[in-house]
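Sanity check

After download, print the first record. It should look like this:
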Amino acid sequence: MKNRKGFRLWIFLCSLVFSLPVVCVGAGCSKDLLRKSPDVKKTWACDKAADDAMKRKDYKAGILLHERFLEKEPGNAFALYHLGYAHGQTGDHLKEVSYYEEAIALGFRKDRIFYNLGMAYGELNDTQKSVGAFGKALEIDPDDADNHFGLAMAYQKSAADKLAEHEFLKAIEIDPGHVDARLLLSLLYADCGELQKTAEQLRKVLEIDPTNARARKFLKRIEKE
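Expected structure tokens:
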């Protein structure tokens, strides 16, 4: 059993968790799919009009245009990845996962597709597959702080506290300014009743971002306990 510090604090933590956009492991937390080029081992290229719609965040148009493009090139893994991403942005995580898996089967194996796959599985409450996807992202790029952060979130959701702590700390080691990792680590510590460690992380967040209202509110509440 975990060492709780009181039901009132736990209720506050839950309300804070759901106010943190980073915990919503879906569209808003996905890695940007358009900032990097496709796999150098392949010659996949996507449709410009379809990608322009994605850049405008017109995901409904992006879905339609990618579907039309894939009618001509059904084996284009890069376009399948984009289509999965677009579905994720609209909240259809079952389709998101399906298209990611299809792209992976065709050979698209960048760490960002596994990261986004882990996020999508998290939205579907399949923590085992979420952990597996983030693990594959880390195999590809073990020095990416976000990959460690994603795995930490999956562990945290499955109540594997020690594993989650290790991955949050690794993310912070790589990127000391990773505010989201520090915020969720502070929640993990508070959940375990380690309020001193909670406060330390929150103070670090406020050093990085003095305007962070969530951290300030959380720290104020912790200091009253």
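If your output differs, re-run the checksum step. Summary of this record's structure: Residues 46 and 79 are 5 Å apart (CA to CA).
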